[in-house]
Amino acid sequence: xxxxxxxxxxxxxxxxxxxxxxxxxxxxxxxxxxxxxxxxxxxxxxxxxxxxxxxxxxxxxxxxxxxxxxxxxxxxxxxxxxxxxxxxxxxxxxxxxxxxxxxxxxx
Length: 107
Description:
- There is one protein chain.
- The chain is of the alpha+beta class.
- Helix content is 17%, strand content 12%.
């Protein structure tokens, strides 16, 4: 499961040349990061008051997925590598499948 909060970062209608590294996009007068390209909870005075509630629900959902299912990598002999430079995008190299249901769902 992946929640793509950064999808708008790669949309050309939100950012000029979204795949190009351009540190100047964050400097005045451009300030592209303050536009509608990334505003999952609104902007400035119009920030959603329920954002903490939503974070709680996302956390609970992820915990429930981990509680009910066991995952395994595909292929099964996949060697997990740690990247010391984390990225905001998925590499697509690690794939998971549900290997086992650990708990019965409540009825």
